[in-house]
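Weekly sync, protein design subgroup
Attendees: M.S., D.O., the rotation student, P.L. (late)

Item 1: inverse folding check
M.S. brought a backbone from last month's batch and wanted to see whether the design step gives back something sensible before we order anything. D.O. pointed out we never logged the input encoding, so this time it goes straight into the notes. Structure tokens as presented (76 positions):
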């Protein structure tokens, strides 16, 4: 199964984005990044219930700093 999420460098930024999306009726869950890039440190992943690209657009328009959208594949 493939998971797509929006990455944040800190829990604070992730929570800010989560609240923004919640206020617009989009459910999301913030967790530690399950596939972190060690060069970026331990970062956080915001998993969206719905259209991740719509959520990403809202976050970008609100100028919440993020590390982009990423996907990873769970188990083989």
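Designed sequence read out in the meeting:
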């Amino acid at each position: 199964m493939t998971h797509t999420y929006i990455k944040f460098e800190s829990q604070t930024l992730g929570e800010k984005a989560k609240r923004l999306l919640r206020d617009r009726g989009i459910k999301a869950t913030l967790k530690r990044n399950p596939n972190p890039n060690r060069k970026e440190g331990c970062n956080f992943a915001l998993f969206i219930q719905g259209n991740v690209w719509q959520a990403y657009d809202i976050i970008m328009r609100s100028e919440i700093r993020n590390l982009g959208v990423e996907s990873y594949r769970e188990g083989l």
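Discussion: The chain has two helices and four strands. The first strand starts at residue 2 and ends at 8.
Action: P.L. to compare against the previous round before Friday.
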